[in-house]
Structure formats: structure tokens, C-alpha cells
């Protein structure tokens, strides 16, 4: 019911009892609706949070499952042999004639592992052999095949010279230049050139296995050197390198003097600290997964000659992120090991 003042300026709302009851009921209904809307809103928020929690839980389990599957699918790392081999005997000849040197070198390598300079996921191989007295000086993991890198190149030279010796190939002036580039300067293109002349990596491997089985017992040559020098598949062992170097020294392989002279051309020496009167015939190799050196060290001792082989290899399963730093440390380790052998030889042969 509405009442108006005479001037019609003020409107006054007056409620009867029945209208008041209706108004109270209406307000109560509105209040209940508001409460219900709040409850529904709270329920929606709770439900959203619940679904979000379920979503992240499912994602978490999915990630864990994927990680577990990837770990399961990942190839097992190469078992790295830190255990020391029994001194190896070659062709029935005497075993290690320097047990003190063997023990010293083992202790040195163990210290390199302990200090972290050689990592636990790396493995090493070492071999030294006295060519004059025909005895093994040091042998550690000598028969374990490891990556060749550029140390495969003297083997490729032998395969090429075998064909030349048989009259199946001719050594041209270009070949002579490429041989020097392959061995002295470690030019990968030249290596692949000679592999192609022989018939490819498989033919090189087959030729060496069939014609020189007494040398190549753990060697597998299966690939050209890829672009960038990332060659990881060609394999050989310290004992195979040693037998090759011995055969070269004894001139029991074709063009032995030519290969020896190529390995004696001046380059960056990695065979340890030696006297100027000591001639080194060697081939080194390195990638982001391997560092090594194979060498003959020969010294004129006046009335006689001292000569011995040294092989040092460090390799790993995967590539290192900082190749130059990694290589520099491993080269230093190999040089130090070589120097230990050299110092022993100096005392034995009384030179320097």
C-alpha cells in the first residue's frame, strides 16, 4: 500500500502484516539461494582442484614410466676392466720380466682412477715388450679389444702394401704422398683412399685376417673414417698392436721398412720424455671416446741396440663434452706411463 503526501514529493511504503510475511519469506528464499550458489561454487572449486591433482598424478606416473623404459632400453655400458691381467705370454716366450715395473704401473693407473683423472666409466690397456730380450715388460688388459681411432692407419698401410707386393696394385707417386699424409699427418681422406683401393673396410679386414692371422687376433676393421673423424667402430687390442710392431721390427711383413720409416717421420710425440738419441716410430690416435699411442722406441747403446714397444690406450663408452681438455689429460697419463717404462729400460741397458 502506498501513501503520498499532498505535494506528491515523498513516497512512503507501508506494509500490511500479510505483505510483511511475504517479504520475509522472499528474503529467506533469496538467502537460501545465495547459500546454495556459494556451496555449488565451493564444490566446483574442490572438484577442479581434485581433477587437477589427478592430472598431475597421471603425468607424474607417465614420466616415471617413460624414464624407467628408457633406462631399460639403454644399452649397457661397456664393462670397464680395472682389474689387472696376468702378464701375457706371446708365442710361448717369457712372460713379464719386470714384476716391479708391472706393479708400479698398476699402482700409477689406480692412482689415476682414484684422483678422477681416469674416470670410472673408462678402461685402459697397457703393454710394453723388449724386442731385444724378447720378453714382456708390462701387460694390462692386453687382449681386450678397444677403439682404434687413427691407430688403424698402419694396418691400412700394411693391407695396401700387401696388394702391392702381390702385384695387384702399384704404388704411385700419389700413393707415396698419401701414405705420408696418412701416417705422419693422420689425414683421414688419405686413409679412406687406401681402403677404397684395397676394396673397402671389410676387404681390408678380410685381407689382414686371412694373411696375417698370427698378428690380428682381436682386430675388426668395419668402417671408413667418417666426416669429422668420429670413428668408433674399428677395434683392436694392445696385443695385436704389439704383434704388428714386432713383425715390422723383424721385417716379417711386406714393406716393413717403409711402414717403419713413415711411423718415424717427425710429428708431435706422445711417447714420453725420451733422450735425443732415442728414435721413436709411432702412431697416435684420439677421438672424443678414445686416446692412445703405439710405438717402438729404439736407442743406440754403443755396442748394442735397445728397442722395445709401448702401447697405451684409454677408451670410454660415450663421447666427452670437452674433448680437448679430456684428450690433454689422457695424453699426459700415457706419456707418464711411457716414461716409467723408458726409465726402467735405461737402467737395464745402461744408457743416458
The total beta strand count reads: 10
Characterize the biggest β-sheet.
Answer: 6 strands, mixed
H and E string = EEHEHEEEHHHHEHHEEEH
Q: For this structure, what is the CATH homologous superfamily of the largest domain? A: DD-peptidase/beta-lactamase superfamily
The separation of the N and C termini measures 130 Å
Structural class: alpha+beta
The unreliable regions are 1-15, 40-45, 61-95
Radius of gyration: 39 Å
Shape: globular
Alpha plus pi helix count: 9
Strand content: 15-25%
CATH architecture of the largest domain: 3-Layer(aba) Sandwich
As laid out across the biggest beta sheet, the strand order is 3-5-4-10-9-8
Query: What is the top-level CATH class of the largest domain?
Result: Alpha Beta
Helix content estimate: 40-55%
Query: How many structural domains in the coordinates?
Result: 2
Mean model confidence by pLDDT: 82
- What fold name stands as the CATH topology of the largest domain? Beta-lactamase
Amino acid at each position: 500500500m502506498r501513501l503520498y503526501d499532498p505535494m506528491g514529493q515523498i513516497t512512503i511504503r507501508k506494509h500490511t502484516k500479510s505483505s510483511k510475511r511475504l517479504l520475509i519469506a522472499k528474503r529467506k528464499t533469496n538467502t537460501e539461494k545465495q547459500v546454495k550458489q556459494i556451496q555449488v561454487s565451493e564444490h566446483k572449486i574442490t572438484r577442479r582442484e581434485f581433477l587437477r591433482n589427478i592430472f598431475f598424478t597421471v603425468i607424474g606416473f607417465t614420466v616415471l614410466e617413460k624414464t624407467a623404459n628408457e633406462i631399460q632400453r639403454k644399452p649397457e655400458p661397456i664393462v670397464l676392466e680395472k682389474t689387472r691381467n696376468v702378464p701375457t705370454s706371446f708365442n710361448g716366450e717369457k712372460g713379464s720380466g719386470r714384476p716391479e715395473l708391472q706393479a708400479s704401473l698398476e699402482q700409477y693407473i689406480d692412482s689415476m682412477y682414484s684422483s678422477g683423472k681416469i674416470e670410472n666409466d673408462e678402461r685402459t690397456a697397457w703393454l710394453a715388450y723388449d724386442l731385444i730380450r724378447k720378453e714382456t715388460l708390462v701387460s694390462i688388459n692386453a687382449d681386450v679389444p678397444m677403439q682404434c681411432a687413427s691407430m688403424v692407419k698402419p694396418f691400412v698401410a700394411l693391407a695396401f702394401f700387401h696388394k702391392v707386393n702381390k702385384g695387384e696394385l702399384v704404388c704411385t707417386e700419389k700413393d707415396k704422398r698419401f701414405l705420408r699424409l696418412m701416417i705422419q699427418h693422420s689425414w683421414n681422406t688419405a686413409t679412406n683412399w687406401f681402403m677404397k683401393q684395397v676394396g673397402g673396410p671389410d676387404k681390408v679386414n678380410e685381407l689382414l685376417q686371412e694373411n696375417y692371422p698370427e698378428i690380428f687376433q682381436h682386430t675388426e676393421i668395419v668402417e671408413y673414417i667418417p666426416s669429422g673423424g668420429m670413428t668408433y667402430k674399428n677395434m683392436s687390442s694392445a696385443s695385436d698392436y704389439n704383434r704388428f710392431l714386432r713383425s715390422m721390427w723383424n721385417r716379417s711383413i711386406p714393406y716393413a721398412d717403409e711402414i717403419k720409416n713413415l711411423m718415424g717421420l717427425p710429428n708431435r710425440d706422445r711417447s714420453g720424455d725420451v733422450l735425443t738419441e732415442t728414435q721413436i716410430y709411432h702412431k697416435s690416435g684420439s677421438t672424443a671416446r678414445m686416446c692412445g699411442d703405439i710405438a717402438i722406441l729404439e736407442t743406440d747403446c754403443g755396442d748394442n741396440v735397445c728397442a722395445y714397444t709401448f702401447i697405451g690406450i684409454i677408451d670410454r663408452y660415450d663421447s666427452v663434452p670437452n674433448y680437448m681438455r679430456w684428450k690433454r689429460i689422457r695424453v699426459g697419463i700415457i706419456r707418464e706411463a711411457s716414461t716409467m717404462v723408458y726409465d726402467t729400460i735405461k737402467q737395464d741397458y745402461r744408457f743416458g
